[in-house]
């Protein structure tokens, strides 16, 4: 009998969350193509082989540039506001500064803790136009159905 994994479920949920965030900012002028990676992440296994019981989570990393700094700020704020209105709890974790706003948001979904990090230019920044979105599922196991 294989080790039960929720990776498939977590991948679907992460992709849904990502779609919502991209959707609410779809009217913002993006410069070029966003760089998006959706992948399995495996924790420390203390082993050189892949095992069903290895700790794992699903992650989506989205990096996009906007035409202007003010657009990147507006997109980041819109995403943050949307998530807070949906019950996510936001903190800056002390990482924000005069160049960047870093917002960590957490929410329990079906009894498991999710984490989203948004990084975008601060309102005082005048040269940066990028927004980074990182969606991390709760930990589960690699299981029998995951690749890798």
Give a verbal description of the structure:
With 148 residues, the protein is α+β, with helices and mostly antiparallel strands. The protein has one domain (7-43, 53-141): Alpha-D-Glucose-1,6-Bisphosphate, Chain A, domain 4 (2-Layer Sandwich). The protein is built from 2 helices and 7 strands, in the order H-E-E-H-E-E-E-E-E. Strands 1, 2, 3, 4, 5, 6 and 7 form a 7-stranded antiparallel beta sheet that branches. The longest helix has 18 residues, at 7-24. The chain is elongated and about 50 Å long.
Q: Average pLDDT value?
A: 91
Helix-strand topology string: HEEHEEEEE
Going by CATH, the architecture would be 2-Layer Sandwich
Please, how many helices? 2
Described by strand count, sense and barrel closure, the largest sheet is: 7 strands, antiparallel
- The number of distinct β-strands equals 7
Backbone CA Rg = 17 Å
Which of globular, elongated, flat, extended, rod-shaped describes the shape?
A: elongated
Taken together, the total number of domains comes to 1
CATH-assigned fold name: Alpha-D-Glucose-1,6-Bisphosphate, Chain A, domain 4
Give the helix level as a range of percent: 10-25%
The unreliable regions are: none
Strand fraction equals 35-45%
For the record, what CATH class applies? Alpha Beta
Give the distance, in angstroms, between the N- and C-terminal Cα atoms.
Answer: 19 Å
Output the structural class.
alpha+beta
Summarize this, please?
Helices cover 24% and strands 39% of the residues. It has 148 residues and is an alpha+beta fold.
């Amino acid at each position: 009998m294989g080790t039960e994994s929720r990776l498939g479920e977590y991948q679907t949920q992460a992709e849904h969350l990502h779609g919502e965030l991209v959707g609410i900012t779809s009217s913002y002028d993006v410069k070029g193509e966003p760089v998006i990676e959706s992948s399995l992440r495996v924790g420390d296994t203390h082993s050189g082989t892949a095992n069903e019981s290895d700790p794992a989570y699903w992650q989506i990393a989205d990096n996009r540039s906007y035409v202007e700094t003010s657009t990147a700020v507006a997109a980041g704020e819109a995403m943050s506001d949307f998530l807070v209105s949906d019950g996510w709890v936001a903190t800056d974790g002390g990482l924000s500064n005069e160049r960047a706003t870093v917002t960590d948001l957490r929410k329990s979904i079906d009894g498991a803790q999710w984490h989203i990090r948004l990084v975008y230019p601060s309102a005082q920044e005048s040269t940066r136009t990028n927004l980074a979105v990182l969606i991390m599922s709760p930990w589960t196991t690699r299981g029998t159905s995951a690749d890798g």
